[in-house]
Amino acid sequence: MKQYSLFRIFTTSIMLIGMMALGGLNASANIKIVAKVDGKPITNYDVDQRVLFLKAVTNLPETENIEKQIRKDALQMLVDDTLKMQAALSTNPLVQQQANRPATDLIDQSFASDSESGSAALRRLNLNYDAVKTKFAADLIWSGYLQDKFADIFAEIDGKIDLELERIRADASQPQVNISEIVLAPEPNRPLAATMALATEMVKAVKKGADFNAIAQQYSAAGTAQQGGRLGWVLLERLPEKLQAMIAPLDVGGVSDPIQLDGAVYIFKKTGDRKDGANDISQSRIWLVRAVLPVNAEATKSDRLEAAAQLGRDVTDINDCDSMVALHEEYGSGTAPRLEDLRLGELAPQMQNLVKELNVGEPSEALSFSEGVASFMVCKRLKPELNLPTRDDIYRVQFNRLFGSLSERYLLRLRRKASIEFID
């Protein structure tokens, strides 16, 4: 009996091992090579993982057309990552090993939270850790490779910073907008019409809550992609007229429709607006006093008009804040007379318009409120300091602009030189 049991266990074990082997063979059989870049294979599993990654970080709608386009984009991104890695390895065989730690840190920066690590977040999203790490490593390696290869060109940025600062000072009062951008360049697997269609879907997704900056980080061809497309404050008049007409009317937080310019497709998000440029009057600090003449809540319109006329007569000869406070106390409204250290932009629009026109020590016209009618006086006004960008800010903008241009041009050169085979 014991021998039979041992035999059965042995037989069952052999069967299980055989089933596992067959399962492994079947799993391997499902993995196919879909492209080769200079002989280096890219599999359908690699594409599946990149598709999952793009969906997770961009939240683009899962329509049939978008699904097909994302797969095409994922494959092209993998081809480009392979080209970038090969170029970097040709000059530094250890570069991939050196990028491991920074890529791991970048995963934590991008996905970790107080409640879970970056690796745990990837598991929750069903993303393969090594696939994401390889993608981040390729981005870091490419950035370092371009900076080394074109070191002389990047070194010229420092010499342009002072000139740019002078230009900004000269235009300090001109309207500025804070914008983020997504720049979509047509790809071998995505012609211009398909690129415009993808951009349209991106705009729809952002308006429904998708993260603009996350989409920019993965899709944008501009150098600002590394900062999630954040371009920062720019002078409105320096933008092409076509873009000015599109961006200026946007509300803060608004997203533009896609626009084609110079062979690429652009999407913009306005995140700030300075009508007066770096001299942003809304940031002025003001100290006010008021004289409030109480009026019964049930008072008629004519009663309020009469109260306003009386207040106007009472403040005619007042030209200092202490006298305004004394008048307020005579009225006995029980409200505080002094409103100190306020930012102009924090006031209601009606009050902003009133205060902007007042000189220090000048009483305003009477305004009607629920508790009565009031006249305001500015006691002190501090204009905001000139809000200029730092040298680091200017360097980053110049760097991103140069990096985006060099990256696109050099990647096109690598594509032309490489042997790229797509396998159906």
UniProtKB/TrEMBL annotation:
<dbReference type="InterPro" id="IPR050245">
    <property type="entry name" value="PrsA_foldase"/>
</dbReference>
<dbReference type="InterPro" id="IPR000297">
    <property type="entry name" value="PPIase_PpiC"/>
</dbReference>
<dbReference type="Pfam" id="PF00639">
    <property type="entry name" value="Rotamase"/>
</dbReference>
<feature type="domain" description="PpiC">
    <location>
        <begin position="174"/>
        <end position="272"/>
    </location>
</feature>
<keyword id="KW-0697">Rotamase</keyword>
<keyword id="KW-0472">Membrane</keyword>
<keyword id="KW-0413">Isomerase</keyword>
<dbReference type="GO" id="GO:0003755">
    <property type="term" value="F:peptidyl-prolyl cis-trans isomerase activity"/>
</dbReference>
<feature type="transmembrane region" description="Helical">
    <location>
        <begin position="7"/>
        <end position="25"/>
    </location>
</feature>
<dbReference type="InterPro" id="IPR046357">
    <property type="entry name" value="PPIase_dom_sf"/>
</dbReference>
<comment type="similarity">
    <text>Belongs to the PpiC/parvulin rotamase family.</text>
</comment>
<protein>
    <recommendedName>
        <fullName>Parvulin-like PPIase</fullName>
        <ecNumber>5.2.1.8</ecNumber>
    </recommendedName>
</protein>
<keyword id="KW-1133">Transmembrane helix</keyword>
<dbReference type="InterPro" id="IPR027304">
    <property type="entry name" value="Trigger_fact/SurA_dom_sf"/>
</dbReference>
<keyword id="KW-0812">Transmembrane</keyword>
